[in-house]
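Limitations
The C-alpha coordinates in this dataset are predictions for the assembled complex, not deposited experimental models. Users should treat interface geometry with appropriate caution, especially where small molecules or nucleic acid strands are included. An illustrative entry is reproduced here so readers can see what is and is not provided.
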Amino acid sequence: MIVIGEKINGTRKTIADAIRNRDSALIKELAWRQTDAGAHYLDINAGTHPDREPQDMQWLIETVQAVVDLPLCLDSANPKALEAGLRQVKRTAMINSLSGERDRIENVLPMACEHRTHLIVLALDDTGIPETTEKRIDIIARLIQMCRKGGLPDEYLYIDPLVTTIATDIQSGQIAFETMRCIRRDFPQVNITCGLSNISFGQPSRSIINQAFAAIAISCGLNSAIMDPEDMALRNIRYAAELVLGIDPHCKNYNKAHRNGIIGSHPSTDAPISHALKNLVKAMSQAGILGDFSSDNKDPARGPIHTAEEVSSPSLPGHDLEKLAEALVGMREKEVEALTHAYLSAGGDPLNLLNASRAAMGRVGELFEKNEYFVPELMLAGEMLAKIAAAVKPLLRTTEQEIKKSGKVIIGTVKGDIHDIGKDIVVTMLDINGYDVLDLGVDVPVERFVEAARKFEPQVVGLSGFLTLAYEPMKETIAAIRAAGHTGIKFMIGGGQMDDQVSNYVGADAFGKDAMEAVKLCERWIRD
Ligand code: B12
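Predicted assembly:
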Protein backbone atom coordinates (compact mmCIF):
# COMPACT_ATOMS: atom_id res chain seq x y z
CA MET A 1 0.00 0.00 0.00
CA ILE A 2 1.43 3.34 -1.08
CA VAL A 3 0.59 5.81 1.66
CA ILE A 4 0.28 9.50 0.87
CA GLY A 5 0.48 11.37 4.19
CA GLU A 6 -2.34 13.91 4.33
CA LYS A 7 -1.36 16.12 7.24
CA ILE A 8 0.41 19.07 5.60
CA ASN A 9 -2.72 20.61 4.21
CA GLY A 10 -3.23 24.36 4.20
CA THR A 11 -7.00 24.02 4.20
CA ARG A 12 -6.67 23.00 7.86
CA LYS A 13 -6.59 26.01 10.15
CA THR A 14 -3.47 25.10 12.15
CA ILE A 15 -1.50 24.49 8.96
CA ALA A 16 -2.81 27.68 7.33
CA ASP A 17 -1.59 29.59 10.41
CA ALA A 18 1.76 27.83 10.33
CA ILE A 19 2.21 28.74 6.66
CA ARG A 20 1.26 32.35 7.23
CA ASN A 21 3.60 32.66 10.26
CA ARG A 22 6.35 30.62 8.58
CA ASP A 23 6.29 28.24 11.57
CA SER A 24 8.75 25.74 10.13
CA ALA A 25 9.02 23.73 13.38
CA LEU A 26 5.42 22.56 13.16
CA ILE A 27 5.67 21.66 9.47
CA LYS A 28 8.95 19.80 10.01
CA GLU A 29 7.48 17.85 12.88
CA LEU A 30 4.50 16.79 10.77
CA ALA A 31 6.88 15.80 7.97
CA TRP A 32 9.09 13.52 10.01
CA ARG A 33 6.24 12.11 12.10
CA GLN A 34 4.43 10.97 8.97
CA THR A 35 7.69 9.65 7.54
CA ASP A 36 8.42 7.67 10.69
CA ALA A 37 4.89 6.28 10.58
CA GLY A 38 5.62 4.73 7.17
CA ALA A 39 4.33 7.28 4.60
CA HIS A 40 5.69 6.89 1.06
CA TYR A 41 4.67 10.36 -0.17
CA LEU A 42 3.80 13.54 1.70
CA ASP A 43 0.89 15.54 0.37
CA ILE A 44 1.75 19.24 0.24
CA ASN A 45 -1.17 21.63 0.07
CA ALA A 46 -0.30 25.30 0.57
CA GLY A 47 -3.86 26.48 1.02
CA THR A 48 -6.25 28.39 -1.11
CA HIS A 49 -4.84 31.92 -1.20
CA PRO A 50 -4.32 32.38 -4.97
CA ASP A 51 -1.78 35.24 -4.74
CA ARG A 52 0.42 33.66 -2.13
CA GLU A 53 0.03 30.00 -3.04
CA PRO A 54 3.08 29.59 -5.34
CA GLN A 55 5.46 31.12 -2.75
CA ASP A 56 3.76 29.26 0.09
CA MET A 57 4.08 26.01 -1.83
CA GLN A 58 7.80 26.62 -2.36
CA TRP A 59 8.33 27.47 1.30
CA LEU A 60 6.48 24.32 2.39
CA ILE A 61 8.53 22.14 0.05
CA GLU A 62 11.80 23.69 1.17
CA THR A 63 10.83 23.23 4.82
CA VAL A 64 9.79 19.62 4.38
CA GLN A 65 12.76 18.66 2.21
CA ALA A 66 15.12 20.02 4.88
CA VAL A 67 14.15 17.15 7.18
CA VAL A 68 12.89 14.24 5.07
CA ASP A 69 13.72 12.88 1.64
CA LEU A 70 10.36 11.36 0.72
CA PRO A 71 8.87 12.25 -2.66
CA LEU A 72 6.11 14.86 -2.44
CA CYS A 73 2.56 14.96 -3.73
CA LEU A 74 1.83 18.52 -4.85
CA ASP A 75 -1.81 19.21 -4.09
CA SER A 76 -3.28 22.32 -5.66
CA ALA A 77 -6.01 23.55 -7.97
CA ASN A 78 -3.67 26.35 -9.01
CA PRO A 79 -1.39 25.48 -11.96
CA LYS A 80 1.02 28.29 -10.96
CA ALA A 81 1.48 26.78 -7.52
CA LEU A 82 2.07 23.36 -9.08
CA GLU A 83 4.60 24.80 -11.53
CA ALA A 84 6.42 26.57 -8.68
CA GLY A 85 6.41 23.35 -6.66
CA LEU A 86 7.78 21.28 -9.50
CA ARG A 87 10.77 23.63 -9.77
CA GLN A 88 11.49 23.09 -6.09
CA VAL A 89 11.18 19.31 -5.59
CA LYS A 90 14.26 17.12 -5.26
CA ARG A 91 12.57 13.87 -6.25
CA THR A 92 10.01 12.91 -8.89
CA ALA A 93 6.79 14.35 -7.57
CA MET A 94 3.17 13.33 -7.76
CA ILE A 95 0.54 15.86 -8.81
CA ASN A 96 -2.82 15.94 -7.04
CA SER A 97 -4.73 16.02 -9.39
CA LEU A 98 -6.00 15.65 -12.96
CA SER A 99 -9.74 15.30 -13.61
CA GLY A 100 -12.03 15.39 -16.62
CA GLU A 101 -12.58 19.12 -16.07
CA ARG A 102 -11.51 21.11 -19.08
CA ASP A 103 -9.13 23.49 -17.27
CA ARG A 104 -7.35 20.56 -15.54
CA ILE A 105 -6.90 18.77 -18.86
CA GLU A 106 -5.53 21.93 -20.44
CA ASN A 107 -3.26 23.00 -17.59
CA VAL A 108 -2.32 20.04 -15.41
CA LEU A 109 -1.96 17.23 -17.94
CA PRO A 110 0.72 18.94 -20.10
CA MET A 111 2.66 19.85 -16.96
CA ALA A 112 2.58 16.27 -15.67
CA CYS A 113 3.67 14.92 -19.05
CA GLU A 114 6.48 17.45 -19.43
CA HIS A 115 7.92 16.72 -15.96
CA ARG A 116 6.98 13.01 -16.14
CA THR A 117 5.40 13.18 -12.70
CA HIS A 118 3.18 10.64 -11.06
CA LEU A 119 -0.41 11.76 -11.22
CA ILE A 120 -3.65 11.37 -9.25
CA VAL A 121 -6.57 11.06 -11.68
CA LEU A 122 -10.07 11.83 -10.39
CA ALA A 123 -13.28 10.30 -11.70
CA LEU A 124 -15.10 13.59 -12.19
CA ASP A 125 -15.61 16.13 -14.98
CA ASP A 126 -17.26 19.50 -15.54
CA THR A 127 -20.65 18.00 -14.65
CA GLY A 128 -19.41 16.92 -11.19
CA ILE A 129 -19.01 13.49 -9.61
CA PRO A 130 -21.05 10.90 -11.53
CA GLU A 131 -23.43 8.87 -9.47
CA THR A 132 -22.87 5.62 -11.34
CA THR A 133 -19.84 3.39 -11.73
CA GLU A 134 -20.24 3.33 -15.55
CA LYS A 135 -19.94 7.08 -15.87
CA ARG A 136 -16.94 7.21 -13.52
CA ILE A 137 -15.21 4.49 -15.54
CA ASP A 138 -15.92 6.41 -18.78
CA ILE A 139 -14.14 9.48 -17.45
CA ILE A 140 -11.24 7.43 -16.07
CA ALA A 141 -10.78 5.48 -19.32
CA ARG A 142 -10.69 8.72 -21.30
CA LEU A 143 -8.14 10.31 -18.96
CA ILE A 144 -5.93 7.22 -18.93
CA GLN A 145 -5.81 7.26 -22.74
CA MET A 146 -4.78 10.94 -22.67
CA CYS A 147 -2.03 10.24 -20.14
CA ARG A 148 -0.73 7.34 -22.21
CA LYS A 149 -0.67 9.58 -25.28
CA GLY A 150 1.31 12.14 -23.29
CA GLY A 151 3.89 9.48 -22.42
CA LEU A 152 2.88 8.69 -18.83
CA PRO A 153 2.97 4.94 -18.17
CA ASP A 154 0.01 3.40 -16.32
CA GLU A 155 2.19 2.72 -13.26
CA TYR A 156 2.57 6.50 -12.80
CA LEU A 157 -1.19 6.96 -12.47
CA TYR A 158 -3.13 6.90 -9.20
CA ILE A 159 -6.80 6.58 -10.04
CA ASP A 160 -9.17 7.97 -7.44
CA PRO A 161 -12.72 6.62 -7.91
CA LEU A 162 -13.87 9.38 -5.53
CA VAL A 163 -15.28 8.36 -2.22
CA THR A 164 -18.28 10.31 -0.96
CA THR A 165 -19.69 10.15 2.53
CA ILE A 166 -21.94 7.34 3.63
CA ALA A 167 -23.82 9.86 5.80
CA THR A 168 -25.50 11.40 2.77
CA ASP A 169 -25.64 8.41 0.44
CA ILE A 170 -25.80 4.90 1.85
CA GLN A 171 -24.55 3.52 -1.50
CA SER A 172 -21.28 5.53 -1.39
CA GLY A 173 -19.20 2.57 -0.29
CA GLN A 174 -20.72 0.21 -2.87
CA ILE A 175 -20.16 2.63 -5.74
CA ALA A 176 -16.54 3.15 -4.70
CA PHE A 177 -15.91 -0.61 -4.38
CA GLU A 178 -17.51 -1.40 -7.72
CA THR A 179 -15.52 1.34 -9.45
CA MET A 180 -12.30 0.03 -7.89
CA ARG A 181 -13.05 -3.51 -9.09
CA CYS A 182 -13.68 -2.27 -12.64
CA ILE A 183 -10.51 -0.17 -12.69
CA ARG A 184 -8.42 -3.11 -11.47
CA ARG A 185 -10.00 -5.37 -14.11
CA ASP A 186 -9.64 -2.94 -17.06
CA PHE A 187 -6.34 -1.27 -16.14
CA PRO A 188 -4.31 -3.75 -14.09
CA GLN A 189 -1.13 -1.66 -14.05
CA VAL A 190 -2.52 1.58 -12.61
CA ASN A 191 -2.56 2.37 -8.90
CA ILE A 192 -5.86 2.94 -7.16
CA THR A 193 -5.97 5.55 -4.45
CA CYS A 194 -8.58 7.53 -2.52
CA GLY A 195 -9.15 9.81 0.43
CA LEU A 196 -9.94 7.04 2.91
CA SER A 197 -11.62 9.11 5.58
CA ASN A 198 -14.15 10.76 3.22
CA ILE A 199 -16.39 7.74 3.68
CA SER A 200 -17.06 8.50 7.37
CA PHE A 201 -17.52 12.26 7.17
CA GLY A 202 -20.45 13.40 9.32
CA GLN A 203 -20.61 10.15 11.29
CA PRO A 204 -19.58 9.34 14.89
CA SER A 205 -16.69 6.97 15.66
CA ARG A 206 -15.24 7.64 12.22
CA SER A 207 -12.15 5.49 12.65
CA ILE A 208 -14.20 2.26 12.80
CA ILE A 209 -15.94 3.10 9.52
CA ASN A 210 -12.61 4.02 7.91
CA GLN A 211 -11.13 0.68 8.96
CA ALA A 212 -14.01 -1.37 7.55
CA PHE A 213 -13.92 0.63 4.34
CA ALA A 214 -10.14 0.21 4.01
CA ALA A 215 -10.26 -3.58 4.41
CA ILE A 216 -12.98 -4.01 1.77
CA ALA A 217 -11.39 -1.45 -0.59
CA ILE A 218 -8.04 -3.28 -0.44
CA SER A 219 -9.84 -6.46 -1.46
CA CYS A 220 -11.29 -4.52 -4.44
CA GLY A 221 -7.85 -3.44 -5.64
CA LEU A 222 -7.02 -0.31 -3.64
CA ASN A 223 -3.21 -0.13 -3.32
CA SER A 224 -2.71 3.45 -2.21
CA ALA A 225 -4.45 5.92 0.06
CA ILE A 226 -4.31 9.55 1.04
CA MET A 227 -4.55 9.09 4.77
CA ASP A 228 -3.18 9.84 8.19
CA PRO A 229 -0.15 7.52 8.41
CA GLU A 230 -0.16 7.93 12.18
CA ASP A 231 -3.60 6.35 12.57
CA MET A 232 -2.47 3.10 14.20
CA ALA A 233 -5.85 1.36 13.88
CA LEU A 234 -5.93 2.06 10.16
CA ARG A 235 -2.35 0.90 9.78
CA ASN A 236 -3.16 -2.34 11.57
CA ILE A 237 -6.08 -2.95 9.25
CA ARG A 238 -4.21 -2.28 6.05
CA TYR A 239 -1.23 -4.51 6.88
CA ALA A 240 -3.52 -7.27 8.13
CA ALA A 241 -5.90 -6.99 5.15
CA GLU A 242 -3.03 -7.26 2.67
CA LEU A 243 -1.71 -10.24 4.59
CA VAL A 244 -4.94 -12.22 4.66
CA LEU A 245 -5.65 -11.37 1.01
CA GLY A 246 -2.33 -12.98 0.08
CA ILE A 247 -0.81 -9.84 -1.43
CA ASP A 248 2.04 -9.63 1.07
CA PRO A 249 4.29 -12.53 -0.03
CA HIS A 250 6.16 -14.25 2.80
CA CYS A 251 4.29 -11.88 5.19
CA LYS A 252 7.27 -9.57 4.67
CA ASN A 253 5.54 -6.19 5.06
CA TYR A 254 3.41 -7.27 8.00
CA ASN A 255 6.31 -8.80 9.92
CA LYS A 256 8.59 -5.88 9.18
CA ALA A 257 5.91 -3.43 10.34
CA HIS A 258 5.61 -5.49 13.53
CA ARG A 259 9.39 -5.45 14.07
CA ASN A 260 9.55 -1.70 13.57
CA GLY A 261 6.62 -1.04 15.92
CA ILE A 262 4.53 0.34 13.03
CA ILE A 263 1.63 -1.95 13.91
CA GLY A 264 0.41 -3.37 17.20
CA SER A 265 -1.89 -2.33 19.98
CA HIS A 266 -0.01 0.64 21.43
CA PRO A 267 1.06 3.62 19.42
CA SER A 268 4.79 4.10 19.67
CA THR A 269 5.63 6.96 22.02
CA ASP A 270 9.33 7.02 21.33
CA ALA A 271 9.05 8.19 17.71
CA PRO A 272 10.20 11.75 18.47
CA ILE A 273 13.23 10.41 20.36
CA SER A 274 14.11 7.91 17.68
CA HIS A 275 13.80 10.57 15.02
CA ALA A 276 16.00 13.01 16.90
CA LEU A 277 18.61 10.28 17.35
CA LYS A 278 18.45 9.36 13.70
CA ASN A 279 19.01 12.97 12.68
CA LEU A 280 21.92 13.26 15.09
CA VAL A 281 23.56 10.14 13.69
CA LYS A 282 22.97 11.37 10.15
CA ALA A 283 24.46 14.78 10.91
CA MET A 284 27.48 13.19 12.63
CA SER A 285 28.05 10.87 9.72
CA GLN A 286 27.77 13.73 7.23
CA ALA A 287 30.29 15.67 9.28
CA GLY A 288 32.63 12.68 9.11
CA ILE A 289 32.46 12.02 12.88
CA LEU A 290 30.71 8.65 12.39
CA GLY A 291 30.98 5.95 9.73
CA ASP A 292 28.58 5.67 6.80
CA PHE A 293 24.96 6.20 7.80
CA SER A 294 22.33 4.00 6.28
CA SER A 295 18.65 4.12 7.19
CA ASP A 296 18.53 0.40 6.46
CA ASN A 297 20.42 -0.26 9.67
CA LYS A 298 17.18 0.50 11.51
CA ASP A 299 15.96 -2.96 10.68
CA PRO A 300 17.47 -5.44 13.14
CA ALA A 301 17.51 -8.04 10.44
CA ARG A 302 19.99 -5.97 8.50
CA GLY A 303 22.77 -5.90 11.04
CA PRO A 304 26.25 -6.56 9.69
CA ILE A 305 27.14 -10.19 9.10
CA HIS A 306 30.73 -11.06 9.74
CA THR A 307 30.47 -14.77 9.39
CA ALA A 308 30.92 -14.82 5.63
CA GLU A 309 34.33 -13.20 5.93
CA GLU A 310 35.41 -15.84 8.37
CA VAL A 311 34.57 -18.67 6.04
CA SER A 312 35.84 -17.29 2.73
CA SER A 313 39.47 -17.68 1.72
CA PRO A 314 41.36 -14.46 0.96
CA SER A 315 41.83 -15.33 -2.70
CA LEU A 316 38.10 -15.57 -3.34
CA PRO A 317 35.55 -12.76 -3.58
CA GLY A 318 34.78 -12.75 0.16
CA HIS A 319 33.16 -9.35 0.01
CA ASP A 320 30.50 -10.78 -2.31
CA LEU A 321 29.85 -13.56 0.17
CA GLU A 322 29.39 -11.05 2.94
CA LYS A 323 26.91 -9.15 0.81
CA LEU A 324 25.13 -12.39 -0.01
CA ALA A 325 24.89 -13.38 3.64
CA GLU A 326 23.50 -9.95 4.51
CA ALA A 327 20.92 -10.19 1.74
CA LEU A 328 19.91 -13.64 2.98
CA VAL A 329 19.43 -12.43 6.54
CA GLY A 330 17.63 -9.32 5.19
CA MET A 331 15.17 -11.58 3.25
CA ARG A 332 16.07 -10.00 -0.11
CA GLU A 333 15.62 -13.08 -2.26
CA LYS A 334 16.24 -11.49 -5.68
CA GLU A 335 19.53 -10.06 -4.48
CA VAL A 336 20.52 -13.46 -3.06
CA GLU A 337 19.80 -15.10 -6.39
CA ALA A 338 21.76 -12.48 -8.35
CA LEU A 339 24.75 -12.59 -5.98
CA THR A 340 24.79 -16.41 -6.02
CA HIS A 341 24.86 -16.38 -9.79
CA ALA A 342 27.55 -13.67 -9.91
CA TYR A 343 29.71 -15.42 -7.32
CA LEU A 344 29.58 -18.81 -9.00
CA SER A 345 30.06 -17.35 -12.50
CA ALA A 346 33.16 -15.53 -11.25
CA GLY A 347 34.61 -18.91 -10.19
CA GLY A 348 33.96 -18.57 -6.44
CA ASP A 349 34.32 -21.74 -4.36
CA PRO A 350 30.87 -23.40 -4.09
CA LEU A 351 31.67 -24.81 -0.66
CA ASN A 352 32.54 -21.37 0.68
CA LEU A 353 29.24 -20.15 -0.67
CA LEU A 354 27.39 -22.92 1.14
CA ASN A 355 29.25 -22.23 4.36
CA ALA A 356 28.52 -18.51 4.23
CA SER A 357 24.85 -19.24 3.62
CA ARG A 358 24.70 -21.70 6.49
CA ALA A 359 26.22 -19.11 8.79
CA ALA A 360 23.62 -16.60 7.66
CA MET A 361 20.91 -19.16 8.48
CA GLY A 362 22.29 -19.22 12.01
CA ARG A 363 21.60 -15.48 12.26
CA VAL A 364 18.08 -16.01 10.90
CA GLY A 365 17.57 -18.59 13.65
CA GLU A 366 18.78 -16.13 16.30
CA LEU A 367 16.33 -13.48 15.07
CA PHE A 368 13.57 -16.08 15.21
CA GLU A 369 14.49 -16.86 18.79
CA LYS A 370 14.35 -13.15 19.66
CA ASN A 371 10.83 -12.89 18.20
CA GLU A 372 12.02 -10.55 15.49
CA TYR A 373 11.53 -13.14 12.78
CA PHE A 374 8.63 -15.57 12.50
CA VAL A 375 7.81 -18.76 10.59
CA PRO A 376 7.43 -16.99 7.18
CA GLU A 377 11.00 -15.67 7.45
CA LEU A 378 12.26 -19.15 8.37
CA MET A 379 10.48 -20.52 5.32
CA LEU A 380 11.80 -17.86 2.99
CA ALA A 381 15.33 -18.37 4.33
CA GLY A 382 14.87 -22.10 3.75
CA GLU A 383 13.75 -21.50 0.16
CA MET A 384 16.72 -19.23 -0.51
CA LEU A 385 19.19 -21.75 0.86
CA ALA A 386 17.57 -24.57 -1.10
CA LYS A 387 18.07 -22.52 -4.29
CA ILE A 388 21.69 -21.85 -3.41
CA ALA A 389 22.22 -25.57 -2.76
CA ALA A 390 20.61 -26.40 -6.12
CA ALA A 391 22.94 -23.94 -7.90
CA VAL A 392 25.99 -25.38 -6.14
CA LYS A 393 25.14 -29.03 -6.72
CA PRO A 394 26.07 -29.32 -10.43
CA LEU A 395 29.43 -27.70 -9.74
CA LEU A 396 30.25 -30.23 -7.04
CA ARG A 397 29.27 -33.06 -9.34
CA THR A 398 31.94 -32.48 -12.00
CA THR A 399 34.21 -35.26 -10.72
CA GLU A 400 31.41 -37.70 -9.98
CA GLN A 401 31.95 -39.89 -13.07
CA GLU A 402 35.27 -41.28 -11.84
CA ILE A 403 33.89 -42.35 -8.48
CA LYS A 404 32.67 -45.90 -7.99
CA LYS A 405 29.91 -46.43 -5.44
CA SER A 406 31.60 -47.92 -2.42
CA GLY A 407 29.09 -48.15 0.39
CA LYS A 408 25.41 -47.84 1.23
CA VAL A 409 23.92 -45.16 3.45
CA ILE A 410 20.32 -44.51 4.47
CA ILE A 411 19.47 -41.02 5.56
CA GLY A 412 16.31 -39.25 6.67
CA THR A 413 14.93 -36.54 8.93
CA VAL A 414 13.28 -38.23 11.87
CA LYS A 415 9.61 -38.28 12.79
CA GLY A 416 8.06 -34.92 13.74
CA ASP A 417 10.79 -32.88 12.05
CA ILE A 418 10.51 -31.48 8.53
CA HIS A 419 13.85 -29.63 8.24
CA ASP A 420 15.56 -31.00 5.17
CA ILE A 421 18.00 -28.40 3.85
CA GLY A 422 20.94 -29.63 5.94
CA LYS A 423 20.07 -33.27 5.27
CA ASP A 424 19.92 -32.62 1.52
CA ILE A 425 23.41 -31.15 1.59
CA VAL A 426 24.64 -34.25 3.42
CA VAL A 427 22.96 -36.44 0.77
CA THR A 428 24.67 -34.49 -2.03
CA MET A 429 28.09 -34.66 -0.40
CA LEU A 430 27.82 -38.40 0.29
CA ASP A 431 26.58 -38.97 -3.24
CA ILE A 432 29.44 -37.09 -4.92
CA ASN A 433 31.91 -38.87 -2.67
CA GLY A 434 30.87 -42.25 -4.01
CA TYR A 435 28.22 -43.54 -1.64
CA ASP A 436 24.96 -45.16 -2.66
CA VAL A 437 22.49 -43.05 -0.69
CA LEU A 438 18.84 -43.84 0.00
CA ASP A 439 17.13 -40.62 1.09
CA LEU A 440 13.91 -41.31 2.99
CA GLY A 441 12.89 -37.64 3.15
CA VAL A 442 11.46 -35.87 6.18
CA ASP A 443 9.17 -36.75 9.07
CA VAL A 444 10.16 -40.39 8.61
CA PRO A 445 8.40 -42.83 10.99
CA VAL A 446 10.50 -45.39 12.86
CA GLU A 447 8.93 -48.30 10.93
CA ARG A 448 10.00 -46.86 7.57
CA PHE A 449 13.61 -46.68 8.71
CA VAL A 450 13.41 -50.30 9.92
CA GLU A 451 11.84 -51.47 6.66
CA ALA A 452 14.38 -49.57 4.55
CA ALA A 453 17.27 -51.00 6.60
CA ARG A 454 15.96 -54.51 5.95
CA LYS A 455 15.63 -54.01 2.18
CA PHE A 456 18.59 -51.71 1.39
CA GLU A 457 21.11 -53.29 3.78
CA PRO A 458 23.16 -50.16 4.46
CA GLN A 459 26.43 -50.00 6.39
CA VAL A 460 25.48 -46.57 7.80
CA VAL A 461 22.22 -44.89 8.81
CA GLY A 462 22.24 -41.10 9.12
CA LEU A 463 19.54 -39.41 11.16
CA SER A 464 18.92 -35.74 10.70
CA GLY A 465 16.95 -33.52 13.07
CA PHE A 466 16.83 -29.80 13.85
CA LEU A 467 14.39 -29.76 16.72
CA THR A 468 14.90 -30.68 20.36
CA LEU A 469 11.79 -32.76 19.76
CA ALA A 470 13.84 -34.94 17.40
CA TYR A 471 15.86 -36.55 20.23
CA GLU A 472 13.24 -39.14 21.19
CA PRO A 473 12.39 -40.25 17.63
CA MET A 474 16.14 -40.61 16.98
CA LYS A 475 16.53 -42.78 20.07
CA GLU A 476 13.51 -44.90 19.08
CA THR A 477 14.69 -45.28 15.48
CA ILE A 478 18.16 -46.48 16.46
CA ALA A 479 16.77 -48.88 19.07
CA ALA A 480 14.18 -50.30 16.63
CA ILE A 481 16.73 -50.91 13.84
CA ARG A 482 19.07 -52.63 16.28
CA ALA A 483 16.18 -54.64 17.73
CA ALA A 484 15.37 -55.81 14.18
CA GLY A 485 18.75 -57.52 14.15
CA HIS A 486 20.86 -55.07 12.12
CA THR A 487 23.63 -54.95 14.67
CA GLY A 488 26.43 -54.15 12.20
CA ILE A 489 24.96 -50.82 11.12
CA LYS A 490 26.71 -47.63 12.27
CA PHE A 491 24.54 -44.67 13.21
CA MET A 492 25.44 -41.02 12.77
CA ILE A 493 23.28 -38.07 13.70
CA GLY A 494 23.38 -34.39 12.77
CA GLY A 495 21.37 -31.20 12.43
CA GLY A 496 20.79 -27.93 14.31
CA GLN A 497 20.38 -28.98 17.95
CA MET A 498 22.50 -32.14 17.83
CA ASP A 499 25.88 -32.62 19.50
CA ASP A 500 28.01 -35.36 21.09
CA GLN A 501 25.89 -35.39 24.23
CA VAL A 502 22.70 -35.98 22.23
CA SER A 503 24.54 -38.63 20.25
CA ASN A 504 25.29 -40.51 23.47
CA TYR A 505 21.74 -40.05 24.71
CA VAL A 506 20.11 -41.48 21.57
CA GLY A 507 22.65 -44.32 21.32
CA ALA A 508 24.30 -43.23 18.05
CA ASP A 509 27.90 -44.04 17.14
CA ALA A 510 28.81 -40.44 16.27
CA PHE A 511 27.62 -36.90 15.76
CA GLY A 512 28.62 -35.04 12.59
CA LYS A 513 28.60 -31.26 12.66
CA ASP A 514 28.37 -30.84 8.90
CA ALA A 515 28.22 -32.67 5.59
CA MET A 516 31.99 -33.08 5.34
CA GLU A 517 31.99 -34.66 8.75
CA ALA A 518 29.30 -37.10 7.54
CA VAL A 519 31.56 -38.07 4.62
CA LYS A 520 34.54 -38.55 6.94
CA LEU A 521 32.52 -40.78 9.27
CA CYS A 522 31.42 -42.96 6.37
CA GLU A 523 34.99 -43.12 5.11
CA ARG A 524 36.16 -44.27 8.52
CA TRP A 525 33.39 -46.83 8.97
CA ILE A 526 33.06 -48.24 5.44
CA ARG A 527 36.30 -47.76 3.55
CA ASP A 528 38.86 -48.34 6.30
C1 B12 B 1 14.94 -22.96 7.71
C2 B12 B 1 14.33 -23.31 9.04
C3 B12 B 1 13.01 -23.79 9.05
C4 B12 B 1 12.25 -24.08 7.78
C5 B12 B 1 12.77 -25.45 7.25
C6 B12 B 1 12.71 -25.53 5.73
C7 B12 B 1 13.33 -26.81 5.24
N1 B12 B 1 12.87 -27.22 4.08
O1 B12 B 1 14.21 -27.39 5.83
C8 B12 B 1 10.77 -24.15 8.31
C9 B12 B 1 10.10 -22.82 8.14
C10 B12 B 1 9.89 -25.21 7.67
C11 B12 B 1 10.98 -24.37 9.80
C12 B12 B 1 9.96 -24.79 10.61
C13 B12 B 1 10.11 -24.87 12.00
N2 B12 B 1 11.18 -24.53 12.72
CO1 B12 B 1 12.91 -24.11 11.94
N3 B12 B 1 14.55 -23.40 11.43
C14 B12 B 1 15.05 -23.14 10.25
C15 B12 B 1 16.46 -22.52 10.43
C16 B12 B 1 16.37 -21.02 10.27
C17 B12 B 1 17.54 -23.00 9.51
C18 B12 B 1 17.77 -24.53 9.48
C19 B12 B 1 18.60 -24.84 8.28
O2 B12 B 1 18.10 -25.31 7.27
N4 B12 B 1 19.89 -24.50 8.35
C20 B12 B 1 20.81 -24.65 7.21
C21 B12 B 1 21.63 -25.92 7.30
C22 B12 B 1 22.36 -26.14 5.99
O3 B12 B 1 22.55 -25.66 8.32
P1 B12 B 1 23.38 -26.72 9.17
O4 B12 B 1 22.70 -27.06 10.42
O5 B12 B 1 24.71 -26.13 9.34
O6 B12 B 1 23.44 -28.02 8.28
C23 B12 B 1 24.52 -28.94 8.41
C24 B12 B 1 24.46 -29.78 9.67
O7 B12 B 1 23.27 -29.65 10.38
C25 B12 B 1 24.71 -31.19 9.18
N5 B12 B 1 23.61 -32.14 9.19
C26 B12 B 1 22.30 -31.99 8.96
N6 B12 B 1 21.69 -33.17 9.00
C27 B12 B 1 22.63 -34.12 9.23
C28 B12 B 1 22.55 -35.48 9.38
C29 B12 B 1 23.70 -36.19 9.65
C30 B12 B 1 23.61 -37.65 9.79
C31 B12 B 1 24.94 -35.53 9.80
C32 B12 B 1 26.15 -36.30 10.15
C33 B12 B 1 25.02 -34.17 9.65
C34 B12 B 1 23.87 -33.47 9.37
O8 B12 B 1 25.10 -31.04 7.81
C35 B12 B 1 24.45 -29.90 7.28
C36 B12 B 1 25.16 -29.46 6.03
O9 B12 B 1 26.51 -29.15 6.25
C37 B12 B 1 16.79 -22.95 11.91
C38 B12 B 1 17.76 -22.03 12.65
C39 B12 B 1 19.15 -22.60 12.77
N7 B12 B 1 20.02 -21.81 13.31
O10 B12 B 1 19.44 -23.72 12.44
C40 B12 B 1 15.39 -22.99 12.53
C41 B12 B 1 15.13 -23.91 13.73
C42 B12 B 1 15.80 -25.24 13.54
N8 B12 B 1 13.67 -24.06 13.68
C43 B12 B 1 13.11 -24.03 14.85
C44 B12 B 1 11.71 -24.15 15.09
C45 B12 B 1 11.24 -23.94 16.51
C46 B12 B 1 10.83 -24.42 14.05
C47 B12 B 1 9.31 -24.60 14.18
C48 B12 B 1 8.82 -25.40 15.41
C49 B12 B 1 8.68 -23.20 14.12
C50 B12 B 1 7.19 -23.15 14.35
N9 B12 B 1 6.83 -22.43 15.38
O11 B12 B 1 6.42 -23.69 13.61
C51 B12 B 1 8.96 -25.34 12.85
C52 B12 B 1 9.08 -26.87 13.03
C53 B12 B 1 8.51 -27.63 11.88
C54 B12 B 1 8.84 -29.10 12.03
N10 B12 B 1 7.88 -29.90 12.48
O12 B12 B 1 9.94 -29.49 11.74
C55 B12 B 1 14.12 -23.88 15.96
C56 B12 B 1 14.36 -25.19 16.71
C57 B12 B 1 14.48 -24.94 18.20
C58 B12 B 1 14.50 -26.18 19.00
N11 B12 B 1 15.27 -26.11 20.05
O13 B12 B 1 13.85 -27.15 18.73
C59 B12 B 1 15.36 -23.31 15.18
C60 B12 B 1 16.73 -23.68 15.78
C61 B12 B 1 15.18 -21.77 15.18
C62 B12 B 1 15.39 -21.18 16.55
N12 B12 B 1 16.55 -20.64 16.80
O14 B12 B 1 14.50 -21.16 17.36
N13 B12 B 1 12.27 -24.05 10.16
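Some entries come with short summary sentences. For this one: The radius of gyration is 30 Å.
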